[in-house]
Structure formats: structure tokens, C-alpha cells
Design a protein that fits this description.
- This protein is mainly alpha-helical.
- Helices cover about 85% and strands about 0% of the residues.
- It contains 6 helices and no strands.
- The protein has helices at about 5-20, 25-115, 120-125, 130-140, 140-150, 155-170.
- Helix 1 (about 5-20) runs antiparallel to helix 2 (about 25-115), helix 3 (about 120-125) crosses helix 5 and helix 4 (about 130-140) crosses helix 6.
- It is rod-shaped and about 120 Å long.
Length: about 180
């Protein structure tokens, strides 16, 4: 028998004896039922009081756990940001080195083609990427550039000329968005 049932039965029996109801079994059951209701109310009151007493502590603990999670997430984000900043710096450094090399190489290429005969330069530029060829021809003096274009295949010279013309077109918006 559980402790609550024993307590309830003992309370009901004591109440019944005090009221002189032992001779009436129905009255004893009624007294036990009333005592059970009172006991249930007392238990409910104790539970309510317990929950009320620990509500603040539970809320504080929940806030503390949430704060710790947020701090951990913040630390993870800061680590990722630091890693991305490091990678960005590496890429910027690599891009600067690449651009420096291209400027030097382009300047060297222009000097090479500047010192070549027009027919030989035209032959070589026909084999190079058309954008590179256009960049080289744009940096040559107009007289030499015209001689080289004159020696080139008509179709390739026309393509090269259209690229050079589009590079000089000022109607193209500066902001591509």
C-alpha cells in the first residue's frame, strides 16, 4: 500500500471515529472521499508552491545556458571571420603579385613586338589570344600598329580592330550593375 493511500485511509478512519461514523459504512466512504479531496488539494498546493519557488531559478539557468550557447556561436563566428580575413589577405597578395607580373610581361611584350618587323609581328599576333594581341597592338605606336594590321589576315585584323574599338568605347557604363 502506498504511503498516500495509507495516510488517506488513516485520516479517514480518524475522522470517522471522531465524528462517530464507524457504524455507518457509507458515511465512512464519504469522509474518506472528502479527505482525499483535501489531500489532493494540499498536494496540488505543494506542487504549485514548489514550481513557483523554482521558476526563477529555472529561468535563470535557461538564460545562462542560452547565453553560453550565444557566446560559443559568437566565438565560432569570430574564428571564421579571422580565417576569411586571412584568406582574403592571401588572395589579395597573390592577385597583386599576378598583376605586377602581368604589367611587367605586358611591357616586355610590347617592347618585343615594337622591335619586330611588321610582317613577322603580324604573323605571331595571329597565333596569340585575340585579347592579348589587342592589348599589345593598343600599346604600340599608331604607325607600327597600322603596319602590323595591314600585314595580318583581313578577318583577324577586323576582329582585333573591333576589340580595340570596343575597349575605347566610352558609351559603356562604368558600373556593370
Amino acid at each position: 500500500m502506498s504511503a498516500i493511500v495509507r495516510k488517506t485511509a488513516a485520516s479517514a478512519l480518524a475522522l470517522a471515529i471522531a465524528a462517530g461514523l464507524t457504524s455507518h459504512p457509507l458515511s465512512l466512504a464519504q469522509a474518506a472521499g472528502k479527505d482525499a479531496e483535501i489531500l489532493q488539494e494540499e498536494i496540488s498546493d505543494e506542487i504549485r508552491a514548489f514550481c513557483t519557488n523554482i521558476a526563477d531559478a529555472a529561468r535563470d539557468q535557461r538564460y545562462l545556458l542560452q547565453k553560453q550557447e550565444l557566446e560559443q556561436l559568437q566565438a565560432d563566428i569570430e574564428d571564421r571571420i579571422a580565417m576569411l580575413e586571412k584568406r582574403r589577405a592571401e588572395y589579395e597578395n597573390w592577385l597583386q603579385l599576378r598583376n605586377d607580373f602581368l604589367v611587367k610581361a605586358e611591357g616586355g611584350l610590347v617592347e618585343i613586338y615594337k622591335n619586330m618587323r611588321a610582317d613577322s609581328a603580324a604573323e605571331k599576333l595571329e597565333l596569340v589570344n585575340i585579347n592579348v594581341a589587342a592589348a599589345i597592338v593598343m600599346k604600340l605606336k599608331p604607325r607600327l600598329a597600322s603596319q602590323i594590321l595591314n600585314e595580318m589576315d583581313a578577318e583577324k585584323a577586323a576582329n582585333l580592330t573591333s576589340i580595340i574599338a570596343s575597349a575605347a568605347d566610352t558609351s559603356i557604363p562604368k558600373d556593370p550593375s
